[in-house]
Design a protein that fits this description.
With 379 residues, this protein is of the alpha/beta class. Helix content is 47%, strand content 13%. It has two domains: 2-182 and 359-378, 3-Layer(aba) Sandwich (Rossmann fold), CATH 3.40.50.2000; 195-356, Rossmann fold (3-Layer(aba) Sandwich). It is built from 17 helices and eleven strands.
Length: 379
């Protein structure tokens, strides 16, 4: 069986891949895919299960990454910006995606949420009989308008939490299946850092993720409280303009991608984790990607409690949770002063994800659903 994946790679991931490629050499496409941890893991897992895969990570037709990687980063960024302004490049890219799919003739076309695929492209694929699947890890109310408009066109939507009610309300059709997130132990693992890396990434507490006022108001307020109370914390992610007038700006370190994220997690004594703002009941199942990444890296995790945590980790033995900003601060202080207990919990969490929560295990579930859909269509 054949499966095609398309995903638009953001500039930061491209630049991270470019720097690694310049240092290590090899095929640029492999470095680019490696920055997309989930897709990289899926390729391995689907291949192990006997699928023939094709991954298309372009964000431009006239200046694909395999060409732009040979240009200086500044020139490449300027060229990409000019092409996006014209919109011609975007239109040509959509046509090229269609041609690649038509040539490859996959059984499944898989397009994760956030891929910037045009509605007309999906409509054309459906009219030609292709089975369309997507991975949707966000509540419908936090999606871009474009992504919400595309929901009815997918035959199968995989969700890592109980988001179905909101997705249906937003117009999702077809089959919706719950598949939790997993990890790849070859990517997320304990890393021994150099002195220079420990200096760059090290902190008592680390947080990687978005902190916009629109979608992350609750976590933002809690992190601001921690900073104001003097917690030694480093914040990675988001954009500088989001933090003007906020204490976050004093500890904000910029954006990191790929292997840099793994190093930043491993350099911290405590990894803070919050879920995106959501409606009541939307997270009765599932945890976010960071919950599994922190555990796989062997980092002690302090999680803003969600109802689904017990499905994956035993609280106070494999993970520690909090409900309020005061409880968060108390537990940060406690576990910073109890290193042996902190390390014991982190080790137990790592053992748990390696046993029960790998991407290979999850992709087996995805593959089963896809095969069922293909079999149903042949009846």
């Amino acid at each position: 069986m054949k499966i095609y994946f398309y995903y638009k790679v953001d500039r930061g991931y491209y630049e991270s891949a470019w720097r690694t490629w310049k240092r290590q050499g090899g095929r640029f496409e492999e470095h680019l895919l490696r920055t997309q941890h989930t897709l990289y893991s899926w390729r391995k897992a689907f291949s192990q299960l006997g699928w023939q895969t094709q991954f298309d990570l372009r964000s431009s037709f006239l200046l694909p990454q395999t060409i732009s990687c040979h240009l200086p980063l500044t020139l490449s960024a300027c060229a990409r910006a000019a092409l996006w302004v014209t919109r011609l490049d975007v239109w040509l890219l959509q046509k090229s995606i269609l041609r690649r799919i038509q040539q490859f003739q996959p059984d499944i076309v898989f397009i994760p949420l956030g891929s910037s695929i045009w509605r007309s492209t999906l409509q054309k694929l459906k009219s030609e009989g292709f089975v369309l699947a997507q991975w949707c890890g966000l509540p419908a109310n936090t999606m871009l308008k474009r992504d919400r408009a595309n929901l009815p066109l997918f035959d199968i939507t995989f969700q890592p939490a109980n988001l179905e009610e909101g997705l249906r309300h937003a117009g999702a059709g077809g089959r919706i299946e719950y598949v939790p997130i997993g990890i790849d132990p070859d990517i997320h693992r304990p890393v021994v850092l150099t002195v220079e890396e420990q200096e760059r990434y090290g902190a008592d507490v680390c947080f990687i993720g978005g902190l916009s006022k629109q979608f992350h108001a609750e976590r933002r307020a809690m992190i601001e409280f921690a900073i104001e109370q003097g917690v030694n914390i480093k914040i990675w992610g988001g954009y500088r303009e989001h933090f003007i007038g906020s204490p976050i700006l004093k500890v904000w370190q910029g954006q990191i991608w790929g292997e840099e994220q793994v190093k930043a997690l491993c350099a911290a004594k405590i990894g803070l984790n919050f879920h995106v703002d959501h409606r009541t009941g939307e997270l009765r199942q599932g945890l976010n990607l960071r919950a599994f990444e922190l555990a796989a890296c062997g980092v002690f995790q302090l999680l803003h409690r969600v109802p689904g945590v017990g499905e994956f980790f035993e609280e106070d033995k494999e993970i520690v949770c909090f409900d309020t900003k005061e409880e968060m601060l108390d537990k940060i202080c406690y576990y910073l002063n109890h290193e042996a207990q902190r390390q014991q919990i982190a080790a137990a969490a790592r053992a748990r994800v390696l046993r029960d929560h790998t991407w290979l295990q999850r992709v087996k579930l995805i593959s089963r659903v896809l095969v069922e859909e293909l079999d149903r269509r042949q009846l």
